[in-house]
């Protein structure tokens, strides 16, 4: 039986009835239509599904949609404003930190959270901060350079 | 990946949660962070008919300084353990374990109760908790009981818990002067992998002559549960601590485990690493005990 949930997604109020066995990833992608959040491993290892849940980066594939009731969710689509790209997004573009782009939404959200907590991380702190986000294309170096430049 | 269907329950209190667990028993599983249960459900290893979500149980999301003990609620997250000042200052080996677990994303959801309750042999939190002499409180509709964590694990995924019980708190004795503990884990990667070997050591020094009056060495990933390295502990007791003694304890610890060969390493390698990590964690414990 579906449950009615209310949550805030990128500053917009959402009210929706969901099956208990729907993941937050599927809620975001299929019900709300925000496909920036990706499905990779679906078991919490790759970070492609990263969103900020009540301000903390999590694997949305491991969160039930019903568990997000009453919560604030921020996806990659929420970073850009009418003034333009978020500084982290801009840095990724400028530094060549995006190749296929599949890891980028999750990577950028993890990086944003890292920089919000620690504005001047050194390389080892950056690597530890994005350890939950896998990239198959870049070899991480340009991602690290991008994060350092912000 | 699709999740199986289930009835979703979201109790507003621990008592209500216990009532639900009493009703459904083995047909129910509790859900906290989901970093273990959700994975098992997606892989079709588990398909509980009822999920009892603990998200509304605020009293379980807590940490309390009781002087000679720290009482941690089962829902306290692993990320919170990594930044908690009380944990860092008083039970630092637990912090080391928390920092080693998973990834920043996993740590934001994983809970201390879950890392204990899921009973994975390579789990990062149990070894230091056992070394500290921690107990867990298990609650059901029939009441509460305390179990020493060292006696809690029965096998991979199997614990002392009855199907209707909920692990509500973990009570950790705080080391006093002359006592210290350390934790080191060895993995193939620096994050997001299953430990190859992990060891926690606790020592207590005699105030009068500085000899070792008590030692607890806990080995993870080298048996079906975390194991006590009793041969190593016997080597240490009554002796004056030094490099050679710790190395000797490390060698003794190798016979206290039953590792397997797998793609992460051979059993012989794991045994050798048990020796190395035992020695190194004893160094950390000793440095703390004499600080």
Looking at this protein, list some descriptive labels.
heterodimer, A: 150 residues, alpha+beta, Ubiquitin-like (UB roll), 2 domains, 31% helix, globular, B: 291 residues, Uridine Diphospho-n-acetylenolpyruvylglucosamine Reductase, domain 2, Uridine Diphospho-n-acetylenolpyruvylglucosamine Reductase, domain 3, Enolase-like, domain 1, 3 domains, 5-stranded antiparallel β-sheet, 4-stranded antiparallel β-sheet
Distance between the termini of chain A: 46 Å
Question: Radius of gyration of chain A from the CA trace?
Answer: 15 Å
Strand content of chain A is 15-25%
| Largest interface in this structure | A-B, 31 and 31 residues
Query: What characterizes the major β-sheet of chain B?
Result: 5 strands, antiparallel
Shape of chain A: globular
Radius of gyration of chain B: 19 Å
Give the oligomeric state of the chains in this entry, treating copies of one chain as homo and distinct chains as hetero.
heterodimer
- Identify the strand order in the major beta sheet of chain B: 4-5-10-6-7
Low-confidence stretches of chain B: none
CATH superfamily name of the largest domain in chain A? Answer: Beta-grasp domain
Number of helices in the DSSP assignment of chain B: 11
Can you write the helix and strand succession of chain B as a string?
EHEHEEEHHHHHHEEEEEEEEEHHH
Give a quick precis of the structure.
With 150 residues, chain A is an alpha+beta fold.
What does this structure look like?
The complex is a heterodimer of chains A (150) and B (291). Chain A is an alpha+beta fold and 150 residues long. Chain A has two domains: 3-76, Beta-grasp domain (Ubiquitin-like (UB roll)); 87-149, [2Fe-2S]-binding domain (DNA polymerase, domain 1, Orthogonal Bundle). Chain A has helices spanning 24-31, 87-94, 104-117, 123-129, 141-149; strands at 3-9, 12-18, 50-53, 56-59, 72-74. In chain A, strands 2-1-5-3-4 form a five-stranded mixed sheet, covered by helices on one side. Chain A is globular and about 50 Å long. In chain B, helix 10 (243-253) runs antiparallel to helix 11 (267-289). With 291 residues, chain B is an alpha+beta fold. In chain B, a hairpin with a 6-residue loop joins strand 12 and strand 13 (212-220). Chain B folds into three domains: 7-53, Uridine Diphospho-n-acetylenolpyruvylglucosamine Reductase, domain 2 (2-Layer Sandwich); 58-173, Uridine Diphospho-n-acetylenolpyruvylglucosamine Reductase, domain 3 (2-Layer Sandwich); 179-289, Enolase-like, domain 1. Classes of the chains: A alpha+beta (150), B alpha+beta (291).
């Amino acid at each position: 039986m579906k449950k009615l949930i209310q949550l805030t997604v990128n500053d917009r109020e959402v009210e929706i009835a969901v099956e208990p066995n729907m993941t937050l990833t599927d809620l975001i992608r299929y019900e709300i239509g925000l496909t920036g959040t990706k499905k990779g491993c679906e078991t919490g290892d790759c970070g492609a599904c990263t969103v900020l849940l009540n301000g903390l980066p999590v694997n949305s594939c491991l969160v039930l949609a019903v568990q997000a009731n009453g919560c604030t969710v921020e996806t990659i689509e929420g970073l850009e404003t009418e003034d333009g790209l978020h500084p982290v997004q801009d840095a990724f573009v400028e530094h060549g930190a995006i190749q296929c782009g599949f890891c980028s939404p999750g990577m950028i959200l993890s990086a944003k959270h890292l920089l919000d907590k620690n504005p001047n991380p050194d390389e080892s702190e950056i690597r530890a901060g994005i350890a939950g986000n896998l990239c198959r294309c870049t070899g991480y170096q340009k991602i690290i350079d991008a994060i350092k430049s912000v | 990946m699709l999740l199986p269907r289930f009835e979703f329950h979201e109790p507003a209190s621990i008592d209500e949660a216990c009532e639900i667990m009493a009703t459904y028993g083995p047909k129910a599983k509790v859900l906290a962070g989901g970093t273990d249960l959700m994975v098992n459900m997606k892989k079709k290893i588990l398909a509980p008919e009822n999920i009892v979500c603990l998200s509304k149980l605020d009293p379980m999301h807590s940490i309390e300084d009781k002087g000679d003990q720290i009482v941690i609620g089962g829902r306290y997250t692993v990320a919170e353990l990594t930044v908690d000042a009380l944990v860092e200052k008083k039970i630092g080996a637990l912090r080391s374990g928390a920092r080693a677990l998973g990834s920043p994303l996993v740590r934001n959801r994983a809970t201390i109760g879950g890392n204990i309750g899921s009973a994975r042999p390579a789990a990062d939190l149990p070894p230091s908790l056992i070394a500290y002499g921690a107990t867990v409180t298990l609650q059901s509709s029939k009441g509460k009981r305390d179990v020493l964590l060292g006696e809690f694990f029965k096998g991979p995924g199997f614990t002392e818990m009855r199907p209707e019980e909920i692990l509500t708190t973990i009570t950790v004795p705080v080391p006093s002067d002359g006592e210290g503990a350390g934790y080191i884990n060895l993995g193939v990667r620096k994050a997001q992998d299953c430990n190859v070997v992990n060891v926690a050591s606790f020592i207590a020094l005699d105030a009068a002559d500085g000899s070792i009056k008590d030692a607890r060495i806990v080995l993870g990933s080298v048996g079906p549960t975390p194991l006590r390295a009793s041969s190593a502990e016997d080597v240490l007791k009554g002796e004056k601590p030094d490099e050679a003694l710790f190395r000797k304890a490390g060698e003794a610890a190798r016979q206290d485990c039953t590792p397997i060969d797998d793609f992460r390493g051979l059993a012989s390698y794991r045994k050798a690493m048990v020796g190395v990590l035992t020695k190194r964690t004893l160094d950390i414990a000793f440095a703390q005990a004499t600080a």
